[in-house]
Amino acid sequence: MSTARSRSLTHEDPADVDLQTALEALADPVRRMILQDLAAHEDWVRACGTFDLPVTKATRSHHFAVLRGAGLIEQRDQGPRRVNRLRRSEFDQAFPGLLAAVLEASGR
């Protein structure tokens, strides 16, 4: 069942994202932390509140919105939790090798 909260989520198709938007989303170190964490876990396991990030809850929400807007993540509500999935294959189709390069460089 769709809730008003989940209906407010918008997910950009990576194929519709321009390179500038993708690069700006990937440029922020907090967003790269989120992506690294998601890359290390199975889809739909990590809830927004479980990430250890050095930012406030409002700023955290902003970072997730930017990642959704760049086609990098997908989110859905599971009960009271909002869980996340890295859209690796879809993003790789739009920007081959970009995400892998960023994740590799961030892991150093």
UniProtKB/TrEMBL annotation:
Q: Under the GO molecular function aspect, what terms does this record hold?
A: DNA binding; DNA-binding transcription factor activity
Q: What region holds the HTH arsR-type domain? A: 11-106
Bilayer-crossing regions: none
Gene3D superfamilies given in the database record: Winged helix-like DNA-binding domain superfamily/Winged helix DNA-binding domain
Kindly give the InterPro entries that the UniProt entry links to this protein. ArsR-like_HTH, HTH_ArsR_DNA-bd_dom, HTH_MetalResp_TranReg, WH-like_DNA-bd_sf, WH_DNA-bd_sf
Give the record's keywords alphabetically: DNA-binding, Transcription, Transcription regulation
Protein name (database record)? Helix-turn-helix domain-containing protein
This protein's species is Kribbella qitaiheensis
Tell me the organism's taxonomic lineage: Bacteria, Bacillati, Actinomycetota, Actinomycetes, Propionibacteriales
